[in-house]
């Protein structure tokens, strides 16, 4: 990109070709920073949240109500997606962040636990396990269980727990 001597620096032909592109990139970067500052100062804009249906139904309405009271000019857009679809939406930049049941390891996503909810066993009152205060996974191996689809976040959590 540059030809250098002890007395001067000049652009090569490739450098001259690249210079307008570099200036455009820097201008776009500066504009983006200014827009972010403006949004932060005026607190306007839109936040897109990918979430599983359970979160959308149970606790997001109260959280969104409080958020809207504090930031009335920021619109919230919800993407009601499965666990895997939510992660993909975050990776593709279609969602600013996601609320999911799965924690995981992906180099481009930071996972932060929000709550720790236990799984519970649901059975009829007359079932032999109904009176127990706790049941281990190995104790369940003798029983037929009703499961959920393979791509469900719950199913993935259960499969992971049972494999360990």
From TrEMBL:
Keyword Hydrolase found: no
Top-level taxonomic group: Bacteria
Keywords, in A-Z order: DNA-binding, Transcription, Transcription regulation
Entry's Gene Ontology cellular component terms: cytosol
Gene3D superfamilies named in the record: 3.40.190.290, Winged helix-like DNA-binding domain superfamily/Winged helix DNA-binding domain
A molecular function GO annotation: DNA binding
Database matches in InterPro entries: HTH-type_LysR_regulators, LysR_HTH_N, LysR_subst-bd, WH-like_DNA-bd_sf
HTH lysR-type domain boundaries: 1-12
Family, similarity comment: Belongs to the LysR transcriptional regulatory family.
Name of the protein this chain belongs to: LysR family transcriptional regulator
